[in-house]
Design a protein that fits this description.
Number of helices: 9
Order of helices and strands: HEHEEHHHEEHEHEHH
Largest sheet: 4 strands, parallel
CATH superfamily: Glycosidases
Structural class: alpha/beta
Strand content: 5-15%
Strand order of the largest sheet: 1-2-4-7
CATH class: Alpha Beta
Length: 274
């Protein structure tokens, strides 16, 4: 299937590449790397476009921020969701927590090898770095707490993660059972992706609210409020920009002030001695 998809991608690059400069191989992916390499080796030099991927993930907030197990469970949620596909692209392999958890559960279920495929060194090198930007889909947030599922329950995505997803009943309900408006979670997911994957260009690919009421007139105030909240969180100063500002502006400024103060004190000391 990867070869078929690569053929299809090359046909698209050839037919539309003179006009299309931003390509998204998949929303929730599989055969991404081969298409990226096809563009990179054959089309990029003449078309000057970019190829990325779109990955959907909710934010995971620990139920108890003072409980290390809840913190680990929330991190595990993000790695099983976003890291599952982003980590091979940016680090060359599946997240370590996925390899450990699924490997252990597979052994307990009597399997000789892990249910999670193992990349060869050649595959790791081939996949790593195959994205010019990171596309993010995001809609809502979950509170996460630890829960151990016995291996005898059988293999499943839920059981491998060993966690439970919860929602705050005070979060605005948007008409779908799975969807609640939690703008601050979007901000935290953006910071998480930005920090973990080396500050890649990030494009928001999916976001929005479902139809809450059936009506013939415009009656989507909840959707307006949802979009305003999420857009405002996206527009806030990025975390790494703050860090960069501290590194490039604050630290040199403080050092300069310290030197000036030291020079003034030395001048007064010399004058007092004279």
């Amino acid at each position: 299937m990867a070869n078929y998809f690569s053929d299809y991608a090359n046909l698209c690059f050839e037919a539309f590449g003179d006009r299309v400069k931003y390509w998204v191989t998949f929303s929730d992916p599989r055969a991404h790397a081969q298409a990226w390499h096809s563009y990179n080796s054959t089309w990029r030099s003449r078309q000057q476009g970019l190829v990325g991927i779109s990955l959907n993930c909710d934010w995971a907030e620990p139920v108890d921020t003072n409980n290390p197990k809840d913190i680990e469970a929330a991190e595990r949620y993000l790695q099983f969701c976003l890291g599952w596909f982003a980590n091979p692209i940016y680090a060359g392999d599946y997240p370590q927590v996925m390899k450990e958890r699924i490997g252990r559960k597979s052994a307990e279920q009597g399997l000789d090898v892990s249910r999670l495929p193992v990349f060869s060194l050649q595959e790791k090198g081939y996949i790593k770095g195959t994205s010019d930007f990171l596309g993010l889909g995001h809609f809502t947030t979950r509170y996460i707490t630890e829960r151990n599922y016995p291996s005898r329950l059988g293999p499943s995505y839920q059981n491998d993660r060993d966690l439970v997803e919860l929602v705050d009943p005070n979060w605005p309900d948007l008409g779908s059972q799975w969807l609640h408006s939690v703008p601050w979670g979007f901000r935290r997911l953006l910071n998480f992706a930005q920090t973990l994957y080396g500050d890649p260009p990030i494009y928001v690919m999916e976001n929005g609210a479902s139809q809450k009421l059936h009506c013939t007139q415009l009656c989507d105030k909840w959707r307006i409020k949802y979009l305003k909240g999420y857009i405002n969180e996206m527009l806030k100063e990025p975390l790494l920009s703050h860090m960069q500002m501290v590194t490039e502006i604050v630290v040199p400024t403080v050092c300069t002030l310290c030197v000036l103060i030291a020079a003034v004190l030395l001048m007064f000391l010399l004058r007092s001695q004279n």
